[in-house]
User: Fold this.
Amino acid sequence: MALLAALPVVAPDSTQQAVGYPSLFLLVLIGALMPVVPTGALVSSAAVVAFHRTAPFSMVLLLVTASLAAFLGDVALYWLGRRGMKSRNGSRWLEAIRRRAPEDRLEQARRKLTDHGVAVLVLSRLMPAGRLPVMLACLLAKWPMRRFVRGNLPACVAWAATYQLIGVLGGSLFREPWAGVLAAIVLTVLISTAPGLWRRVRGTAAG
Assistant:
């Protein structure tokens, strides 16, 4: 990922626009459908590069690219999940969502969804490992696609802006873009793993 993010550092502006943003869009889209791509770190790394380039509108283009890719990926996954809910045999996509939504997190998501509605979608995108439990809760609550889309659009924009800000912070700490990319990746990894580590520590202490 760092190599992909570092490509625009040495490439001309035209090459970055032709390769960098479409690559970012594709990877974030895949990461939304199959949560194996560290999309947060990818957006932060790209933000470091855009910060050091100081090109007009690069930050805006990055925000639009990341937000749109995340939004389309989420909508596609939700649509596939709805098809699985209606199918007698389910679907591999619905099963994949269920596997990544532990029962305790799902129950918590269902309660919050009942109490706060669409606002929970925005928070779920900002919380590590919070997106899929809330998405599954929406599926189980039989939310129509229109309602999910209405809540998910600001959620994706907030997510992209947050990780873009992390990248800007990392880029502002170092003069060299590669050092800023590394700092951004470390920050995003810490943010994504800290809640899980804290829960394990609490569980161990309670046990």
